[in-house]
């Protein structure tokens, strides 16, 4: 390259400098020389080459000992370029008639090392101007220039906010420069996670270039401006028996490590770390919870509802009652929300709540009153009533002639609880019949059945006995050869009630007729007493009475 009319050679520090002689080799050349000029202009010869003898001589110059090489075309090479090689060198060609000279300017360049940010601040505080660090670029030539960047944008100096100082030092032995740029900075909260870097700009043989440092992120400290309280729970709702963890946090950096927690019913705050744990909470823990910084500044609150569910079944457990008695049953619920209540009897869900005005055997069983809060997971209560309906044995006996006319079926219908034991005997002989068959015991009822073919009239006795009483009932059964009125085996409850009602009606009618006859007899007796023919009538009536008695005796014998 030609600079200001002079030849210029750009060299890289440490490489070989190659300088061709800018002159054309003339005819009659005797020798050629290279020299360089001192700052005061005096020459220092460093190399000689004869064109006739073809020998090369290097002058004793310490800076260039063992570093020089002069070729046949008078190109001078200097190994291991140094900053001190940046001089004005002159090529001289000598003939018998003339001496020609042409200078060459040597420029040496050295790329700096990658800049580093040293002496970094441990952290930055908002609203405070402090030293962020120093950007150092070493061993450059010529000296470089340093620029600071934040998030890829240049940081321009701003009074009391961005203060940049640049310092350049040179190594006297090598002539290389070290550039140091310090940055004082006043950060804001928004500078958290900001990336700071620096770039050194330098010149090389091919022009201007840059090298960037590794980015650095600083921990920015700023005070807490807001406090937040949270309820840490695995479920969205809280019930009695759960554990509650309160967490208080501040948005400062570093975050506060201690807080004051305010619990319902407590006048003073409880000093704790950022969490406060309550175990096995009860319903009285419902209320407003607060937390603040230890200096009582900045406070936040939240409301906690501890859900509860109480169930009271009256009566509960095992209850024994007599058949026909009344039993009031109540299942009382107390809860934090509307609860769902349902009844279960013997593992089957009931459509209505149980009510017993007159207990029957079928009312016995295991009753469960259960309630839940559907929106609160795991909150369920239940209580059990085991109802036992007891009754003394009740017996009704029926008989019927079987269709083959060869036997009769006698049935003893038994009610009672606990289940009565049934025994059959033959009245008179006292013998026990062991061939009875029993039906299934359901709702306090069952039947015991025997089949007989009596050759003569017989009286059978059915004995039913449980823990409460022993009941005995007998039934006359005619011989199989004598026809008799057959009775149905059993009746349902409705028919039984109707028969009972009819029996009561018949008894009432009979009692009424007897009363009427009694009144009529009394009136008649008074009338006869006053009659003048009392004696005659009495004799006649006595005769009639005797005849009537004989007639009645004859009739009774024939019936028998």
Offer a quick outline of the entry.
The chain is mostly beta strands and 560 residues long. It contains two helices and 44 strands. A hairpin with a 2-residue loop joins β18 and β19 (207-212).
List the helices and strands and how they pair.
Blueprint: E1 2-3, E2 6-12, E3 17-19, E4 31-37, E5 43-50, E6 56-58, E7 68-70, E8 76-78, E9 88-94, E10 99-109, E11 116-118, E12 124-125, E13 130-140, E14 145-150, E15 153-154, E16 162-170, E17 177-185, E18 195-204, E19 207-212, E20 216-217, E21 220-221, E22 227-232, E23 238-239, E24 244-250, E25 259-262, E26 270-272, E27 275-278, E28 287-293, E29 299-304, E30 306-307, E31 309-314, E32 317-322, E33 330-335, E34 340-345, E35 348-349, E36 365-372, E37 380-401, E38 408-417, E39 421-426, E40 432-433, E41 437-438, E42 445-452, E43 458-465, E44 470-477, H1 493-529, H2 534-559
Parallel strand pairs: 2-10, 12-21, 23-30, 32-37
Antiparallel strand pairs: 1-2, 3-8, 4-5, 4-9, 5-6, 7-8, 9-10, 11-13, 13-17, 14-15, 14-18, 16-17, 18-19, 18-20, 22-24, 24-27, 25-26, 25-28, 28-29, 31-33, 34-35, 34-36, 36-37, 37-38, 38-42, 39-40, 39-43, 41-42, 43-44
